[in-house]
Amino acid sequence: MVKEIIQKNKKLSATIKDYSIITFGLLVFAMGWLLFLIPAEITGGGISGVAAVVFFATKIPVSATFFAINVILVLVAIKILGASFGVKTIYSIVVLTLFFAFFQNILKEPIVDDNFLSAVLGGMSGGIGLGIVFSRGGSTGGTDIFAMIINKYRNISPGRIILYCDVIIIASSYFVFQSPEKLVYGYVSMWVVSYSLDAFLSGANRSAQMFIFSKKHKEVADIITETGRGATVMDGTGWYSQENIKIVMTVMRKRETSAVFRQIKEIDPDVFISMGSVMGVYGEGFDKLRM
């Protein structure tokens, strides 16, 4: 009974932490739009971009358009896909709508005079905000839901669908402003969002996979395990030399590799190491696999 209560409390605490971090990420994302992009009349991607274009053309609040389109998408997705996109997506849509509604009436004047700087700062804020949301298993809905719906009927990757949507959304701003300059700034913002998102999600947690070919494989494996990382020793045959050799395979954070390199080089100057970046590492000692 006591264990069950403890487990429930831990689960509740983890849930509260996740939603708190998602809320903060949504705030950072909204500030990118409301502090930089909208005051400078720059359009980005996603349903936020659609809402911004509608606002520039009709002065309908961003929150109203953003919420209306997402409600339609959610209802269609429930009918076609079921509620597979999760509660966190619906939560993010509601919270982001509230942030847009509350802060757009307060933040009206641009805080920087340079449009290019506004595009970069708005993109950075948007990308970091999305990174925070995604890191906790959340989603802002919008074109993500649209991509899932299309992907069910057509063999097109969701990432490509989202890219096409963003390109079309930003291009539509030309009909409002008749300005190639604004169009370019929109695409700059889209690129910065993508770069910032990738940089945030990998960042300090970027990992490397190493294959180490050494006659002193036992010492090498010991060095790696002393750092707290695991190592797997495999049998191999060098086809050029026709000699049997042991291969040590390990995965660790990139920031940890320099110290390991130095120690391995000291015990085996003739060591051969192949190292490559990996997109994600999930399991003990690394990231949790979030569904």
Whole-number average pLDDT? 84
Number of helical regions? 11
Strand order in the sheet with the most strands: 2-3-1-4
What is the gyration radius calculated from CA atoms?
24 Å
Low-confidence sequence ranges: none
Helix % is 55-70%
Bin the strand percentage: 5-15%
Describe what you observe in this structure:
The protein starts with a helix and ends in a 13-residue tail after the last strand. The chain has a 4-stranded antiparallel sheet. It is 64% helix and 11% strand. It has 2 domains: 2-203, no CATH class; 206-278, Alpha-Beta Plaits (2-Layer Sandwich), CATH 3.30.70.120. It contains 11 helices and 4 strands. The chain is an alpha+beta fold and 291 residues long. The chain has helices at residues 2-37, 46-58, 62-81, 87-104, 115-135, 143-153, 158-172, 174-177, 180-202, 217-226, 254-267, and strands spanning 207-213, 232-238, 243-253, 272-278. It is elongated and about 75 Å long.
Brief summary of the model shown:
By secondary structure, the chain is an alpha+beta fold. It is built from eleven helices and four strands. The radius of gyration is 24 Å and the shape is elongated.
Strand-helix topology:
Elements (H helix, E strand, L loop, with lengths): L1 H36 L8 H13 L3 H20 L5 H18 L10 H21 L7 H11 L4 H15 L1 H4 L2 H23 L4 E7 L3 H10 L5 E7 L4 E11 H14 L4 E7 L13
Antiparallel strand pairs: 1-3, 1-4, 2-3
Helix pairs in contact: 1-4, 1-5, 2-3, 2-7, 3-4, 3-6, 5-9, 6-7, 7-9, 10-11
